[in-house]
């Protein structure tokens, strides 16, 4: 029952995130591509009502994600957010009265099948609700170092695919870390009450890292083509979440020959994502270099 609730809430959160993606990236198209890391970018976007509406959808998605993480493993919940991209296509198609071409449908189908096969093969289970402090003491510096290296690489590169991919991967690390901290804080609230939630360092940690994730994602959208940033974000979030689930939350994944269907599922997801981001509807809706 708990697993079913986790999947349901995760899917609803993915839909809400997809709506946020459509609104926020549409707003981001109205600001120019950038050459440098732009702290002022968030200020510009905050003045746009469409972007603020998207941010509201992000808050709803965060609440649904918390409920999903309360009922299921991090290794199960976070990979389901891969479906955010197909959901964004559906919503964008309705908003813009555009149809998804056959290759787009095929790519979406590949992503869904790949996700299903991968999660079936991995079969995430077990784990702890409140990780040991020592595990966070290792995970936080590791994630921070990865983000610093990726951002450092991005700012030294000109506008283009490498820059966008590095920012996308940095955002993915932050999104996965945000989910892990949110899961920990949510369980503190469920077991010890609201006071524990507001006094837990994880609560302020996921809020801070979440803002950093949004900032890095917006810079990824402004740094180069979606075909570079979105697959990096999609695969990166799922991969880092699986790593945090296994190491920090001590969750269990099947090994041995099950690694073969897991790899096949991952390839289908990545291949589908690369095709999806080349669909004209996606470029019209969210690509930063799309015609205005």
Describe the structure.
With 292 residues, this protein is mainly α. It is 76% helix and 1% strand. The protein has helices at 2-28, 41-46, 49-71, 74-77, 84-96, 102-122, 133-155, 161-192, 194-199, 201-221, 226-247, 259-276, 280-285; strands spanning 125-126, 251-252. It has a two-stranded antiparallel ribbon. The longest helix is centred in the middle third of the chain and has 32 residues, at 161-192. The radius of gyration is 18 Å and the shape is globular. The termini are far apart. The model is unreliable at 287-292 (pLDDT under 50).
Give a short summary of the structure:
The protein is mainly α and 292 residues long.
Low-confidence stretches: 287-292
Choose one word for the global shape: globular
Per DSSP, what share of the residues sits in E-state strands of 2 or more residues?
Answer: under 5%
State the strand order across the main sheet: 1-2
Rg over C-alpha atoms, rounded to the nearest angstrom: 18 Å
Structural class: mainly alpha
What profile does the largest beta sheet have?
2 strands, antiparallel
**Approximately how much helix is present in the residues?**
over 70%
| Beginning-to-end CA distance, first to last residue | 47 Å
pLDDT averaged residue by residue: 84
Number of extended strands:
2
DSSP summary: helix tally = 13
Order of helices and strands: HHHHHHEHHHHHEHH
